[in-house]
Amino acid sequence: MGDASPSCAPLDHSLLEELMNRLRSGIHDQELGGAKELRRLAKLSSSNRIRISEAGAIPLLLKALKSSGTDVQAHSIAALLNLTIRNDANKQAILLAKGLDSIVDVLKKGKLQESRENAAALLFNLSHANSHRMTVASTEGIFTGLAELLRDGSARGKRDVAAALFNLLQIRHCRPLAVRAGVVVPLLRLAQDSSLGLVDESLTVLLNLAGHQEGRFAIMQASGIRTLVDLLRRGSDSNKEYACAVLLVLCLDDYACSEEACNLGVQELLENLLVSGTERAQRKAAKIMELLK
């Protein structure tokens, strides 16, 4: 996102009107200048975010997402993201302007990876409130787009995808949609790669999926039990805690999960957790041990 300056003079009506006219112009350089400046101003202060929205920028920025100019699209999606920083009214304004389809289109087909990742971050912001979550989750193609970015995004992009998925998968009927879109394999890869610092984030999403039949099957098919057992062996304390939680949910409803975990040596690892794990991990480990008897 754009750089913030240390201070920001109050926005006056004439400047905002000029920026709106640039976005309306249909001229690439004018649109680019308007979107770029709005991106910068929206990041500077909460009062700017209010004034920019009141000037009518949100529908114009959403329209600019369809621009043939890579740079216009990039600055427009970033401006929209900045406008939602600690501003619920602007989030609501984006939904009322029916902007979700355009945002998901950038997520899936954005001309720059930065644009796709800013779209994911924006969807995370929009899905944070319970009242918005169902609307966001119902947008066609959202889970396919998130799954694709989870596979090929940067660490920052993957973090935003995981956060958006965590929000959206609070809705139970979205869990099979995410599984069918292909999120399980890249989530397990994130759980296996401690260098990205996203092990716990991926496990919290997998925890939501593990309780659903399709999610459980997909995790098992992707060697997820082995991944969880490996985390119990070598992960951090928090990794072990989350891995235990996922494993417990899997084993509750599927004997095959329990059998595979036993074959991988999970019992000794659980015994170790009962002695040295966090309090939550100890509770989960004890419950798994009961299931394995």
Describe the structure.
There is one protein chain. The chain has 293 residues and is mainly alpha-helical. It has a domain at 1-98: Leucine-rich Repeat Variant (Alpha Horseshoe), CATH 1.25.10.10. It has helices spanning 13-24, 28-44, 46-54, 57-64, 70-83, 88-96, 100-109, 113-126, 130-137, 142-152, 155-168, 174-181, 184-192, 199-210, 213-221, 224-234, 237-252, 255-263, 266-276, 279-292. The longest helix has 17 residues, at 28-44. It is elongated. The relative contact order is 0.06. Mean pLDDT is 95; it is low at 1-7.
Task: Kindly summarize this structure in a few lines.
By secondary structure, the chain is mostly helical.
Tell me the number of strands. 0
* Tally of DSSP helical segments: 20
Query: What is the C-level CATH assignment of the domain at 1-98?
Result: Mainly Alpha
> What is the CA-atom radius of gyration, in angstroms?
22 Å
What is the end-to-end distance?
Answer: 54 Å
Q: What overall form do the CA principal axes indicate?
A: elongated
Percent helix, as a range, is: over 70%
Alpha-beta content class? mainly alpha
Order of helices and strands: HHHHHHHHHHHHHHHHHHHH
Protein name: U-box domain-containing protein
Keywords: Ubl conjugation pathway
Domain U-box: 35-292
Pfam families: ARM_PUB (PF25598)
Task: Give the topology, please.
Blueprint: H1 13-24, H2 28-44, H3 46-54, H4 57-64, H5 70-83, H6 88-96, H7 100-109, H8 113-126, H9 130-137, H10 142-152, H11 155-168, H12 174-181, H13 184-192, H14 199-210, H15 213-221, H16 224-234, H17 237-252, H18 255-263, H19 266-276, H20 279-292
Protein name: U-box domain-containing protein
Pfam family, one: ARM_PUB
Keywords: Ubl conjugation pathway
